[in-house]
Design goal:
Blueprint (H helix, E strand, L loop, with lengths): L16 H9 L2 E2 L18 E2 L4 H23 L8 E4 L5 H10 L6 E4 L4 H7 L9 E7 L15 E7 L17 E3 L9 E8 L2 H17 L4 E6 L6 E6 L14 E4 L13 E5 L2 E8 L2 E5 L8 H14 L12 E3 L12 H26 L1
Parallel strand pairs: 3-4, 3-5, 5-6, 8-9, 8-10, 10-11, 11-14
Antiparallel strand pairs: 1-2, 6-15, 7-9, 12-13, 13-14
Helix pairs in contact: 1-2, 2-7, 5-6
Length: about 375
């Protein structure tokens, strides 16, 4: 079975109409014999008629088959077109990433988002890169798993992982909010505890507490959400619902939920938008963590709370691998060929294309003679 690497080439099939149109336009002049009495008749240009012969139809079929084979070969063959490229994790610290990219000499390189299984994806798609291209992977600590064997690439591949840092906690400067709000859990012995820092005025604390109580119920006690006024080393989410206030510079967390307050977070001026379960979320990355904002913060009814819970479960990060890949560089292994699963079909198509071209030239020459 032939695999198509670039299936959009099949959209070029309408070009088969060109040889048909060309053959229909071919005309053969009617053979005329001069008669002695022709001088008494008014002159007229010779007429042309469409003449279809067996070799014309055969030539038309060969030319159509030649175009089909050419399209199939283009759809199954890889032409290396990528140059130096940076595969960058969307959640990495942008300032640190830019420093590493500049140090590696990839400032002018193209950038694409880091795929889920980066090393396997790179191995499978390595044929897209030119022979002199280099690849740089920028990721957070624990995002790239260490394979069982040392990977080999036909291009120089450099991996830079951001060192894991312990979130710093400000000793003071806590916003006005309750000291601790603990949500109930159905099974504390087996529940996973998630620490959340809540910064909100007293009038809105009840709404956030209801939300995480709903999260507890929706998860059947699998998670226990522990809310506090300040982040600690275990905090994974900071809820910032304090308008016209700037959070302490030392606060760090993987994710932030922010009620609309663009003045305190200039990063939210340029956001990406996604909609899940009817909930529209906007997000942007910053050195403090990934910032999320939505008009649904905090939810005003049970349906919105449930939709927000489902959306957040879909956005939850995958667990870190048991053995994370450290920063290192893999030299180009020239003896290693890219993993091309459809090399044989593309090769046979190339030979078929050559054979059809030769047949087409022979028939075209025979038609003229």
């Amino acid at each position: 079975m032939m695999l198509s690497s670039y299936p959009l080439w099949w959209l070029a099939l309408p070009v088969l109409l060109l040889p048909v149109w060309w053959h229909r336009q071919k005309r053969q002049r009617v053979k005329a014999e001069a008669l002695a009495t022709a001088r008494f008749l008014p002159s007229a240009p010779p007429e042309q008629l469409r003449v279809w012969q067996w070799r014309d139809k055969l030539l038309l079929a060969v030319r159509c088959l030649l175009l089909v084979t050419l399209i199939a070969w283009l759809a199954a063959t890889i032409f290396p077109w990528r140059g130096d490229t940076v595969l960058m994790d969307a959640g990495v610290d942008k300032a640190w990433a830019e420093k590493e990219i500049a140090a590696a000499g990839f400032s002018n390189a193209a950038r694409i988002e880091l795929p889920a299984d980066a090393l396997s994806w790179l191995r499978t798609n390595e044929r897209d890169w030119r022979s002199d291209a280099k690849v740089l992977l920028i990721a957070r600590a624990g995002q790239i798993a260490m394979p069982a064997r040392v990977p080999q690439f036909s291009h120089q591949t450099t991996i830079r992982t951001q060192p894991a840092t312990v979130p710093a906690v400000a000793p003071s400067a806590a916003p006005s909010s309750p000291q601790s709000i603990a949500s109930p859990t159905a099974s504390a012995a087996v529940a996973v505890e998630q620490h959340i820092a809540l910064a909100a005025p007293a009038t809105r604390v009840a709404a956030w507490r209801s939300l995480f109580n709903a999260f507890d119920s929706a998860g059947n006690g699998a998670r226990r959400y522990k809310l506090s006024a300040e982040p600690d080393v275990s905090t994974t989410l900071i809820v910032w619902d304090t308008p016209n206030a700037v959070p302490p510079a030392a606060w760090r967390a993987t994710d932030w939920w922010i009620a609309p307050s663009p003045s305190a977070f200039p990063e939210l001026a340029k956001t990406s938008t996604l909609t899940i379960n009817g909930v529209t979320l906007k997000y942007a990355d910053s050195p403090r963590g990934r910032l999320w904002t939505s008009d649904a913060f905090p939810p005003r009814d049970a349906d919105t709370a449930r939709a927000l819970y489902d959306a957040w479960q879909l956005l939850s990060a995958a667990p870190a691998p048991a053995y994370a890949m450290p920063s290192q560089t893999f030299a180009a292994a020239r003896g290693t060929l890219p993993a091309i699963t459809d090399a044989k079909p593309a090769t046979w198509l190339a030979f078929a294309l050559l054979a059809l071209f030769m047949i087409e030239r022979i028939l075209a020459h025979a038609r003229r003679h």
